[in-house]
Structures are given as structure tokens and as C-alpha cells.
Amino acid sequence: MTAVVTRRGHGKPSLAAGLAGLTVLVLCAAVLGIAVGARALSPDTVYHALTCPGDWPLHCPARTSADQIVRELRLPRTGLAIVCGLALGIAGALIQGYTRNPLADAGLLGLNAGAAFAAVLGIHLFALTAPRQYIWFAFAGALLAGLVVFAASAAGGALASPLSLVLAGAAVTALLQALTNAVILLDHTALDSYRFWVVGSVAGHDAGVLRQVTPFIALGAVLAVAAAPGLNALTLGDDVARGLGVHIGRNRALGLVAVVLLTGAATAAVGPIAFLGLVVPHLARMITGPDHRWLLPYSGLLGALMLLLADVAGRVVARPGEVQAAVVLAAVGAPGFVFLVRRRRTLGL
Predict the structure, then answer these.
(1) Angle of CA points 15, 21, 26, to nearest 5°
(2) What is the spatial distance between Cα 312 and Cα 306, in angstroms, rounded to a whole number?
């Protein structure tokens, strides 16, 4: 039986209402993502592009450049920001819960380093240039790095503990970063492609990339929801969780598979997005408390909202150019996280 850990005064009705309100905010941010860009488009133009399929029905005029901008650039970009923000927010909450480390994010378990090394290796060996080509290498690299970290932390037949996960992740990350640097120093083509991917951005991807990563993120989200009750017990300690009937190894494996799917797919698509998986769970925890049954959906929606707003802000602040979403998030997230730490005094889970 899992203890009820929602904060005093925040019952299920109020938390459910908060989720509904947050969903509305994400939808409003999505509208901004479609309507706002480097090229100014009127609301009528955006509405026409969304409701008129082009050459059919017959009363619709032929497709214009504005239609192409909205349908082929902004719609996939907005959808990718929602899906990847959702994935990184949920993954950040899971990683912090399983490692019991409030400063943990996807980089701690070697997932970002694995994705980066595999992507660079695919570019170097097979001359891949388009994101939809090397995205599969990046995803496979994150998956393999996660498996190696989990296997190393459970070496000798022992259960993977939070400390062993952190130590194994740090070792694997250092190794993969060194290998990545070696490849990009030998291949300037790989360096050119890598530097655009590693900065972290939802721009420059078509609908094909969104279709590729969505099934993995959906499966990861389902596994995360399934792991939430057991994770609540694990935060009380392994002995208490075992006494409550939680199979510790099985629950950790389930949660880590969810983390690998969510982080691997999102990072492969848009590159490493700094601060999102780190800050979002803390913001969500201020609303929900430590109950992961509510913390995970709140973290996902907040992640989607933050990535959408960062992408829109990046289009506006440097017109006619753009600032990558990861740069905007880092510029806002770093001082914001410092303020959050100083205000709360402690980041205990």
C-alpha cells in the first residue's frame, strides 16, 4: 500500500483541476508556436493554412508560401516541442526519484553522451547528414548507454542502488564524451553536423522526425505511469519498499527503461536540452508534493510548456534570425534554478 504523500491542502480534485489548467496553457502555447515566427503572418493567414488543405476542396486556392510555412515548418516544430518537452519533464522526475538526487538529469546516467557518440559515429561512418537519418543512431546510443549503466551498477549480482547508478553513469559519460571528441576531431563533417545537433533545438525537423519518436515516447510515458506507485515506496527506502511488497529490482528496471525510452527518443530528435529535466520536476514538486502519481504528469506538461515558450521566445528575440530553444532555457533556467534553491533552502526529495 502506497502512502498518500500529496501536500496538505492539495487534494485530488485540486490537483486534477491544476492538470486541466496546465493542459489549457500548453494548448495556448501551441497556438503561439504555430502563429509566431521569424516571418509575421496574420491570424487569417494562419487559420487558412490550418483549415484549407490546399488544392482540395476546389474552392480553396492553391497552396501559398504561408501555407507551407505553417504546415511543413511550424506544425511539426510545435508538435516536436510538445512531445519532447513532455518526455524530458517526465524523465527528469523519474531520474531524480530513482537516484534520490535532486540535481540529477538525463546527463547523469550517460544517456546524452550515448546519443551524442552514436550520432557522431553514424555521421562519420555512413556520411549521414539529415536528422531523420542519424536519429536512429542517437536513439540506439542512448539505449545502449542506459543498459551499460544499469548493468554496471548491478554488477556482482547486487541490486542497482541510487549511488551505484550515479557512479556508473559518471564513468560511462566520461568515456563516451572522450570517444565523441576523438571522432569529431578526426572528421570535420561530423563536427559540423554535431555542433548543430548538440546545441539543442526543435527547429529544422520535418513531420517524419515527429512520427519516428512519438511511439517510443508514448511507450515510455505508459511505463513511467506504471512505475509511479512503486517509486513512491522506493523514496521511503529500500527496506520500507520491500516491506510494502514492492519488487525493488523489477520496479527500478521498469523505471529505467521508461527513462531510456523518453530521454533517448527526445534527445535523439532535438539534441540535449539543458535544465529542462532538472528544473521542471522541482517546479512540479512545489505543486504536487513528492507523490509521483501526480508529479509525473505535472512534470510532463510543465516540460512541454517550457520548451514551447522557449522555442517561441527564441524566434522573437533575434528576428529575422533565431535563438535555439536550449540556449533560451539555459539563459532563463540557470538563474531561475539558483533562485529556486535559495528560496527553498533545501532540495530534498
Answers:
(1) 125
(2) 10
